[in-house]
Structures are given as structure tokens and as C-alpha cells.
Amino acid sequence: MLRVDDVLRAYHHGYFPMSDPADGKVYWCQPYRRAIVPLESYTPTRVVRRLIERREFEVCIDRDFEAVIRYCAAPRKQEKETWISGEIIEAYTELHRHGHAHSVECYRDGELAGGLYGLSIGSAFFGESMFHLQPNASKVAFDRLVVRLLERKYELLDAQIINSHLRLLGAIEIEHEEYMALLYSALSKKTRFI
Q: Which of 25, 60, 62, 88 yields a CA-CA distance of 20 to 30 A from 97?
């Protein structure tokens, strides 16, 4: 069972949990190269800017954290498995109750359209996963996340493992040593997500 204290301690040392669908066990990951999103250089796409200007989505924070993590845990269309196990859902829902895990959600006509969740410690935000039920909803949620992190003076947005979708959002890869220096700096400063 994943305990809240163990999860928080792992993040302080550059690890994060992932479950292996093959055996259901949770493993601690510390990639040699880490994906981060440089907050100061983030620029939303024209489509995202247009959606925000038109107020196509109502954006909320922590309205329904559990729904967000459960949607994130559902396998994607091109995949049959997920790294977000029931044990991870339970642990992060508990972290949410303790004020460490947060969700950013997009609603359209009162229905959840997309969102993301992650963990906030010090001035670091660790993005865990995102989903969309309607086109671009997760991108709008991501944009609103970045805006909030900048407003609250966060220093680090950790995206964990690079992929093509994260690159489109502005993520880059850095070496482990550089990541750990950024992490320790961000953990030494306090800010509040809510």
C-alpha cells in the first residue's frame, strides 16, 4: 500500500510511482533524463488562446479530483493498459484530502470535458496525467495550470517522462543532475496552489 508520507518523501528525492500493468505492482521511477516545462517560456497555441478568449470551457480547481484521476487512469484509445492503478488512485486521493494533490478541470455545459492532476510541494508542481473527453479541453486545463503556477511564483513544473504531446505543450528534457538542482531549489521555497 502506498502511504502518503512515502510518496511525499519519494518526490523530495526525485522519484515518482508508476504501476506495472503486467504484475500490478507499484515501482519507483527516477528517469536519467527528466521532462520539465519551463514556465517562463510557455506560450499557448492560437487554438488554446481562442478557446480561452471565447470562454468555451469553465475552468475549475479541485471541484472533482477523484473523477479527474479516474478518467486519467482509463487506458487511452491506442493503449490497452494504464500505469495508474487502484493503489495510485487511492494514494493520490488521500494526498488530495491532505492538500498536496490538485486537479484543474474544464467543464462545458456543466459536464466534465477534460483536465489534469498533479502534486504540489514547495514551489514545485509535479504533473501526473491529463485527459480529455472533448477536443482541446486538457490543453486549456494545462494552460490554466501554467498561468496559476506563474501567478503563485512556482519555480518548477515537472512533466516526468517526455512524449510528443508534452513537447507540443513546451516540455523539454534535462539531465538528472540539472533536474535535481532545480528540484531542491523549488522545494526550499514555499507557495500555495490554493
A: 25
Rg (CA), the chain: 16
Residue 80: what pLDDT?
66
Q: Which residue has the cell 522545494?
A: 187
Sign of CA dihedral 180, 6, 118, 166: positive
Model pTM greater than 0.85? yes
The 3-state DSSP class for residue 44 equals: coil
**Which domains does the chain carry?**
4-187 (3.40.630.70)
Give every CB contact of residue 32 below 8 A, 6+ residues apart in sequence: 175, 176
Whole-number Å distance between alpha carbons of 138 and 151: 20
Query: What CA–CA distance (Å, rounded) separates 127 from 180?
Result: 16
Question: How many residues appear in the chain?
Answer: 194
